[in-house]
């Protein structure tokens, strides 16, 4: 049996989070929920770098500069940014098809990533991986739904006892894959340090989650006695305060955790195929951190926004001028 703490009682100590069958909810530190403080410059610069990088990809695609397809994380940038300081150098990160933000929050190498996507010299994987399949310094992404979780469990098994963890990003649509449940089963049986980050944006490509998922993610994690924590905030400081003690449990007690983010996909599924009705798109925009921060502190925001936009424009121009990568020349 699993337990949900009533709103007035969401104060389980970390020790309680180590018991099985618990859906973990950590109290929000006083003052953060009602009056979020502006993010630090470092966080805002990374948020804006990812935002403008993704917008640049859409422009490049429209101009015919990109091959294949590309999936942006517009609206969801704050998730990997919030996780950035919580992940250690020796952790392994497994990403998915919507992984550019995951990579940029992990490695400050926008030139190499864009070169990989564009098939230019200096590409992270010689241009072989493209937008979805990156392998670089403990970072691995895949466009195959659910593929990364079994691999992440195997890596987490190797990391057990080291203090490091494996972090795997998945979407709500991936919970239709059987490999997810096989991975969670083994992760809990083997007690491995695994963090599963669920970016639940309410739609699986073009199918609303409510039309393709029975029940909820919390109950599915509980079926395997896996810890679960659900977050609705988009504030990086608040997210970090909630997750930090739970990741201490993952690392110290070697336990898997499913961290579910209720988020919104601002852009299309991929380059331009958005089938959502206008009201759904408007609802996503209402939750966008970008517009909110622009209103909260306009002068500081405008300055940093301009700097990051100009930086991405310079990167795009410089990478586009490079010759094709070794793989592309074959």
Automatic annotation (TrEMBL):
- Cite the entry's keywords alphabetically: Oxidoreductase, Pyruvate, Thiamine pyrophosphate
Which InterPro entries does this one have?
Answer: DH_E1, PDH_E1_Alpha_Subunit, THDP-binding
Location of the Dehydrogenase E1 component domain: 49-297
Q: Which cofactor does it need?
A: thiamine diphosphate
Annotated GO biological processes are: pyruvate decarboxylation to acetyl-CoA
Please indicate if the UniProt record lists Oxidoreductase as a keyword. Answer: yes
* Pfam families for the chain: E1_dh
Q: Which GO terms describe its molecular function?
A: magnesium ion binding; oxidoreductase activity, acting on the aldehyde or oxo group of donors, disulfide as acceptor
Q: What is this protein called?
A: Pyruvate/2-oxoglutarate dehydrogenase complex dehydrogenase (E1) component type alpha subunit-like protein
Cite the source lineage.
Answer: Bacteria, Bacillati, Actinomycetota, Actinomycetes, Streptosporangiales
């Amino acid at each position: 049996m699993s337990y949900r703490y009533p709103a007035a009682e969401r104060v389980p100590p970390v020790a309680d989070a180590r018991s099985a069958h618990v859906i973990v909810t950590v109290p929000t530190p006083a003052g953060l929920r009602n009056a979020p403080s502006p993010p630090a410059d470092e966080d805002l610069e990374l948020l804006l770098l990812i935002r403008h990088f993704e917008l640049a990809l859409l422009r490049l695609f429209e101009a015919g500069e990109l091959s294949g397809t590309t999936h942006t994380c517009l609206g969801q940038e704050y998730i990997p940014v919030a996780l950035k300081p919580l992940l250690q150098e020796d952790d392994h990160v497994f990403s998915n098809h919507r992984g550019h933000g995951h990579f940029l929050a992990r490695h400050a190498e926008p030139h190499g990533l864009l070169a990989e996507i564009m098939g230019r010299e200096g590409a992270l994987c010689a241009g072989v991986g493209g937008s979805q399949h990156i392998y670089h310094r403990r970072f691995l992404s895949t466009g195959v739904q659910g593929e990364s979780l079994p691999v992440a469990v195997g890596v987490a098994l190797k990391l057990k006892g080291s203090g490091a963890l494996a972090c795997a990003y998945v979407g709500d649509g991936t919970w239709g894959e059987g490999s997810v449940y096989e991975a969670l089963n083994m992760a809990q049986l083997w007690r491995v340090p695994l963090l599963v980050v669920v970016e639940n944006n309410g739609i699986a490509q073009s199918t609303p989650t409510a039309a393709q998922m029975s029940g909820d993610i919390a109950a599915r994690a509980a079926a395997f006695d896996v810890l679960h924590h659900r977050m609705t905030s988009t504030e990086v400081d608040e997210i970090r305060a909630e997750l930090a003690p739970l990741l201490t449990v993952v690392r110290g007690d070697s336990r898997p955790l499913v961290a579910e983010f209720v988020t919104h996909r601002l852009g299309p599924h991929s380059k331009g195929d958005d089938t959502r009705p206008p009201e759904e798109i408007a609802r996503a925009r209402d939750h966008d951190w970008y517009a909110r921060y622009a209103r909260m502190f306009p002068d500081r925001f405008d300055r940093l926004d301009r700097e990051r936009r100009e930086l991405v424009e310079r990167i795009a121009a410089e990478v586009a001028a490079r010759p094709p990568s070794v793989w592309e020349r074959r």
